[in-house]
Amino acid sequence: MGFVPEIIGAGVALASAAGLCTYGVVADESQMFGRTLVAPPEPGQLALTFDDGPNPAATPRLLETLAKRGARATFFLIGDYVLREPALTREIAAAGHSVGNHTMHHLWLPRHPSATIRAELLACNAAIEQTLGAPATLFRAPHGAKRPAAMRIAQELGMQTVQWNLMVGDWKNRSAEDILQRLRNGIAANQRRGRGTNAVLHDGSQFEPRADRTATVDAVAMLLDALPSETRFVTPPQWHE
After folding, report:
1. CA 166, CA 192: separation in Å to the nearest integer?
2. 97 belongs to the catalytic site
3. Which of 54, 148, 166, 170 could bridge across to 33 with cysteines, CB 3.0–4.6 Å?
4. CA–CA separation, 128 vs 83, rounded Å?
5. Active-site residue, from 28, 51, 80, 143
6. In this predicted model, what pLDDT tens digit does every residue of 166-186 receive, in sequence order?
């Protein structure tokens, strides 16, 4: 029975390796499979990023809210929605915000082969280039599930992968006050770590092109009113430079 410990040991090693790979795929700040942009050691900097748009039911008011404070943000857009809302996509870019690739159909990339991942990124970039005249240089995987193949393909297509260090779950039917408190707590926690904040929020939804994101927009408005005047709004391209 001397082989039993060896089998158990092998099983533990496999489980550990699987757990490590899972961490590398889904952990917000993991650099295991390659460099991602998260946030620099600049506690006064705040990057507001918005996923799953453009959304005609929420994005226009969000743009107005950001403009009132002169805040620049980054919008990771679903390619299919870009084709549905080209004018709104152009409005985002015209306001000075960065636009990123969030795939064509918001697939869970770890379930798909490299050929499908490449097709998703290419199609989304084609939609963005058709609308704005240039492809995206930033990529965020749906759900942040940064499979190594996705990061490699993004790099081959000239895009840097962007993650985050603050997620508040604003898609979970939370109130604006709850979202606001989570944002403030997360920003304070990052500042204590000596880091800037890269907050991921949602102006759209993978399930509904006109999703109700009123609570998110209200929370952002309240946050901008409450932040110190010296807060520096940045976008990931600035960190990349």
Report:
1. 14
2. no
3. 148
4. 8
5. 51
6. 999 999 999 999 999 999 999
Give the pLDDT confidence of 92-139 residue by residue, as tens digits.
999 999 999 999 999 999 999 999 999 999 999 999 999 999 999 999
What are the C-alpha distances in Å from 175 to residues 8, 50, 168? 48, 17, 11
What lies within 8 Å, CB to CB, of 34 at 6+ separation is 148, 151, 152, 155, 161
Q: Are 13 and 134 in contact (CB under 8 A)?
A: no
Under CATH, what is the fold of the domain 37-240?
TIM Barrel (3.20.20)
**Catalytic residue selected from 97, 102, 106, 202:** 202
- What's the whole-model pTM score? 0.87
- Kindly report the number of other CB atoms within 10 A of residue 170's CB atom: 25
Average of pLDDT values for 218-240?
92
**Contact yes or no for 30/155 (Cβ under 8 A):** no
